[in-house]
Design brief:
By secondary structure, the chain is an alpha+beta fold. It has one helix spanning 41-54, and strands spanning 17-20, 31-34, 59-64, 71-76, 86-87. The termini are close together. Bound molecules: zinc ion.
């Protein structure tokens, strides 16, 4: 999978990063492509949206399943959350 092209976030155009999936997950993949741009419109809008609808201080980052290409929101409770699982090539 190393020759795979890095996808770009459909919301901000940044290159996405590999994010290692927790071992006990049932997602059927070892990693997701995740946009870790803190200025991503998707991530920035998420804070307001979550506060208005759920009254929680949280947001989500845009993620893409590497084999199916399905986009889904990855819940995120702070700017630094999830970053410890980024896989740098
Ligand atoms: Zn983005």
């Amino acid at each position: 999978m190393t020759d795979q092209e890095t996808p770009k976030c459909s919301h901000c155009g940044s290159e996405m990063k590999k994010w290692g999936v927790p071992a006990d997950s049932t997602w059927g993949t070892e990693f997701f492509w995740v946009c870790f741009n803190d200025d991503c419109t998707y991530f920035k809008r998420g804070w307001d949206h979550m506060w208005k609808t759920q009254e929680v201080k949280a947001s989500y980052r845009n993620s893409v399943h590497p084999t199916s290409g399905t986009q889904s929101p990855l819940p995120c409770w702070s700017y630094d959350a999830l970053k410890d699982r980024i896989i740098e090539d």
